[in-house]
Every structure is written in C-alpha cells, then in structure tokens.
Design goal:
CATH class of the largest domain: Alpha Beta
Number of strands: 12
Strand content: 25-35%
Number of helices: 13
Order of helices and strands: EHEEHHEHEEHEHEHHHHHEHEEHE
Helix content: 40-55%
Distance between the termini: 46 Å
CATH topology of the largest domain: Dna Ligase, domain 1
Largest sheet: 5 strands, mixed
CATH superfamily of the largest domain: DNA polymerase, Y-family, little finger domain
Radius of gyration: 23 Å
Number of domains: 4
C-alpha cells in the first residue's frame, strides 16, 4: 500500500503558528519583487483567503483588492524557516516509515504494508509535535494515494481499497489527475474523454498518435485501471535537522548539551544514509516565548558524520545563553551545506 502526506497550506499555516493573535485572519504569503510595495505574486494563502478567490500566482495588487485590509496580513516568504520545518517533519515521517521519499517541501510518499494503520499515527504525531495539520491518502497505488489526499483536504484522511481506488480515479475528471496538465486535458476532452474511464474508449493507437508513445501508453493504462507504482523521485535535501522538547524549561548548558547529543546522533544517522558531509552546523533554540533562534558556524573543510563536534556545540550554546536571558523549551541541531562523501578528498 502507498501513503501520500500533504501538509495543508504549508507556508501560510507556518505563519499562522508564528502569529497566534492572527487566528481567523487571512494570511497571504507573498514573493515580493521589490519594484514597488505591491509588486510580486502570492505564494500561498490560508483557507479564509481562498474563499475570497485569492490563490497562488495571483499578483499581490489583485489579492489586496479582494482582501479586507483589517482582516488580512501580507507576509514575505521565509524559505529558511519553511525548509527548517520541512526537515523536522521529514524526520517524523522517516522515523515512522522506513520506505519514504520527500516529493517536495510539503509532500511525502510512503510505501508500507501497514500504511492504513500508520496514517492516523502520522497525522497525530505531526499535530502533537508541531501543531500543524496535514491531509493523508492511502491506496494500492501512489496515484490513488495522491488523489485520496487531495480529496480529503483539509486535515483529512482517506483510505481506499482497490475497488474504491478504481471507482474514484475512473470517475474523476481528466484535469484532476496528477500528471495531466491543461493542454492534455483539453485535448482529451476534445476527443470525447470527460473522465478517466472515458480514456479507455479512445484506444491505444489513437492515444499514441495524439500524445506520443510514452504519454499515450500511460494514458491507455490509466483509462484501463492500471496505475503506476513506485515512490517517485526524492527531493534533493538541503539540510538535516532534528529538534526535541526538553523535559523542563532550562538555561543549564549541560542539560541543553545532553539533549543535543541525542539529537546529533539521530541527525548523523541520516547523514550517513545520505552519504553526505557538511560545512555548516546550526543549533536551534525555541525559548519560553515560543520564538525560534539559531546559532551557526561554518567550516572551511567539510565535516564527516563521525567527527567529534562537542567543542563546537558547547561554544554555540554558550554564545546563545550569553545573548538571551530566556529559558529554552526546545532545542535542535541542523547540518547543512552538503558535499558528497566521495568528493571530500579534493578539498582537504
């Protein structure tokens, strides 16, 4: 069985978490071009904003015309924060599911015989650890799992057996199938295929003539209820991070370093699996006011997964404590700026 996990309106949901007083407001995360205060496009928006017709790719100026100023917050994208949270969620997914692939910054594919059993545990674990919602689909094929997750949004869970999967995919409009874009769906509709089941009536030869050998064969299989398997390609991971909650709030460096040692071990297991060395080490501190802070250092030569970094961790902890008077609730470690292990020898 396959499982597809999709974080709900990920960027905007993360910004909601950073702004507890924004509950009920429209959150619009934007990519500003810098030419004027309103130049740029919408990256993502939460559900209250979507109800007003605001969507990804919309010019910011258009979004502002649709959104009531008193109830809307426009926020610039913070890719570093989103990537850091994505890496932490990735550790939860991989900790529960051995065969997992991160398909994008906010999506994961899993192959697991116990996918239906693990799906609610994954949702609960992500909510408990990060306070975030996600939608999950489980089906005999990855395509079915993706479409089930999409159908269950937001914050849903849909588990399909083989018969239910065929009924859902077969009855779906062609443009709702991942992998069928506007041009292909328009051509299929012009040929008389309104839903996936209709594609089977077109015949393999006609499909190959219209769309080429590869796409035509895929569409023929799709229309006849034969769906692709496999987990898809792994998103290139830009960092590895692990974060954990302390037993109690503290400023004791020894308690902080003790928790970091556990998290470092988990992170380095991932580095070993990835066959990566790293050039940047960061420690993450979540203080009692729920703000996130980071202290980092970079190395001229890459560090391997088995190298001792106790002195570096201690220096970063003491640097943070010297500049911040608040107690720490959660602490984490992040490795970034990767290099393949096989390429190290030319750098030393």
């Amino acid at each position: 069985m396959y499982l597809h996990l999709d974080m709900d309106y990920f960027f905007a949901q993360l910004e909601e978490k950073r702004r507890p007083m924004s509950a009920g407001k429209i959150i619009v995360v934007c990519v500003y071009s810098g030419r004027t205060p309103d130049s740029g496009v919408v990256s993502t928006v939460n559900y209250p904003g979507r109800a007003l017709g605001i969507h990804s790719g919309m010019p910011i100026a258009f979004a502002k015309k649709r959104a009531p100023p008193a109830d809307t917050i426009f926020i610039p994208v913070d890719h570093e924060h989103y990537a850091r949270m994505s890496a932490q969620i990735d550790s939860v997914v991989r900790g529960m599911c051995a065969k997992a692939v991160q398909a994008s910054i906010d999506e994961w594919n899993v192959e697991d015989n116990e996918a239906a059993k693990k799906a609610p545990r994954l949702k609960d674990g992500i909510r408990a650890e990060f306070g975030l919602s996600c939608s999950v689909g489980v089906a005999p094929s990855l395509l079915g799992a993706k479409m089930a997750a999409s159908k269950s949004k937001p914050d849903g869970l849909l588990v399909l057996d083989a018969d239910a999967e065929r009924a859902m995919i077969g009855g779906s409009d062609v443009e709702k199938v991942p992998g069928i874009g506007p041009k292909t769906s328009g051509a299929l509709r012009a040929m008389g295929a309104q839903n996936v089941r209709d594609i089977a009536k077109l015949g393999a030869v006609r499909l190959v003539e219209a769309f080429g050998r590869k796409t035509g064969a895929w569409l023929h299989d799709l229309g006849n209820g034969r769906y692709d398997s496999g987990l898809g390609e792994e998103k290139e991971q830009g960092e590895v991070s692990r974060i954990g909650t302390l037993k109690e709030k503290t400023r004791d460096p020894y308690m902080l370093l003790s928790r970091l040692e556990e998290l470092e071990s988990e992170g380095k297991e991932r580095l070993l699996h990835m066959k990566k060395s790293y050039r940047t080490l960061s420690l993450i501190f979540v203080t009692e006011d729920l703000r996130t802070h980071a202290k980092s250092m970079s190395f001229r030569n890459p560090r391997g997964w088995n190298e001792d970094i106790r002195a570096e961790k201690e220096a970063l902890v003491r640097e943070f404590l010297a500049g911040n008077a608040l107690e720490v609730r959660r602490i984490g470690i992040r490795f970034a700026n990767f290099l393949d292990l096989g390429g190290q020898t030319t750098l030393f």
